[in-house]
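Need a sequence for this fold. Nothing fancy.
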């Protein structure tokens, strides 16, 4: 099977791996231009919904062949049979991480689908664009903190490798689960950067100090005038944390 070798989930990522750049673009040519501009500074890329529907899965293959790590942020959620079979197919692509929504049924099905492959599963707890009011509006009786804690427990019980959560919850989840779960935090905003649609944000240094293993950064790098300089500033902030 192609792709990364099986990794101990407790293995601390090296410094450059801690920065995952979200390739939120629509075409392979836009993605190629960004990857070229970022050069050796960035070794880990995330391909999500936007690019996956625009040629991103084939592009993932070329990134892997070039020695980059790939995180497929597909946020799968469906009936168990569909999730399990989809995960088995994704496992053949050679990516390192795949996201599924952190519902117990979905996580159990995903786990069975990737059995025997090195693909690591991350459960999406509560989107970083949500706050307590958004959860109430969606019909949840609890707030973000409580829902993340509940989903972390269920992800751990399902044998997932890690979680997507915001830096705001990282400290308490790290304290509860130690190195048993990889903590991957989107919603990263260097000081002074626009939050845009993100509601639970932290700076790179704050997220690392709170216990994040990996930081997912999109627009602060990809929309910067000089994406490579922006990525290098974030790496320097991570290194100093
Ligand atoms: O809870 C979540 C889960 C995934 N994301 C994804 O991360 C990036 C963040 O991009 P920015 O431009 O840095 O805001 C994006 O691809 C999201 O789909 C998230 O933000 N929150």
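Here you go.
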């Amino acid at each position: 099977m192609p792709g990364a070798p099986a990794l101990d989930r407790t293995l601390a990522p090296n410094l450059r791996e801690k920065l995952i750049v979200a390739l939120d673009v629509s075409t392979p040519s836009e993605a190629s231009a960004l990857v070229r501009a970022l050069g050796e500074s960035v070794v880990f890329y995330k391909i999500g919904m936007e690019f996956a529907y625009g040629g991103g899965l084939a592009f993932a293959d070329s990134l892997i062949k070039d020695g980059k790590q790939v995180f497929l942020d597909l946020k799968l959620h469906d009936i168990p049979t569909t999730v399990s079979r989809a995960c088995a197919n994704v496992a053949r692509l050679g990516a390192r991480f795949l996201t599924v929504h952190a519902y117990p049924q979905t996580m159990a099905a995903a786990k069975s689908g990737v059995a025997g492959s090195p693909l690591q599963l991350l459960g999406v707890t509560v989107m970083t664009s949500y706050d307590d009011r958004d959860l109430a509006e969606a019909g949840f009786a609890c707030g973000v903190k409580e829902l993340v804690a509940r989903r972390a427990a269920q992800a751990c019980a399902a044998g997932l490798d890690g979680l997507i959560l915001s830096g705001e919850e990282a400290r308490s989840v790290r304290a509860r689960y130690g190195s048993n779960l990889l903590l991957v935090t989107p919603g990263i905003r260097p000081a002074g950067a626009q939050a845009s649609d993100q509601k639970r944000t932290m700076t790179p240094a704050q997220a690392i100090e709170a216990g994040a293993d990996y930081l997912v950064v999109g627009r602060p790098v990809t929309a910067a005038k000089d994406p490579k300089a922006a990525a290098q500033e974030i790496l320097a902030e991570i290194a100093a944390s």
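For context: Residues 49-65 form the longest helix (17 residues).
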